[in-house]
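DM from R.C. (forwarded with permission)

"hey, sorry to bug you on a friday — could you get me a structure for this? deadline for the figure draft is monday and I only need the backbone to look sensible"
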Amino acid sequence: MHGSKFMFATGIENSYPTILLPDGTTKRVDEMEKTGHYLHWEKDFDLVKEMGIEFLRYGPPYYKTHTAPGTFDWSLRMLLLTG
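My reply, with the result:
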């Protein structure tokens, strides 16, 4: 940044919409799962660093974190934060 007030950031897509199928059922499509990010997250973060990106917008998939009313599973987030 060297004194600049400009910040360039990128983000890892973490959409997980539910799609209505022709038979009337719904299916969740987790983009991070679809792209292999859960298997290759360390390499993904290494590539961000290798590209010189200093700021990364990153959020865990909410549906995997907030699993039920009043119930949260932080294991994925903790794994990603502690490596």
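R.C.: lifesaver. The mean pLDDT is 85.
me: no worries. The chain is about 35% helix and 20% strand.
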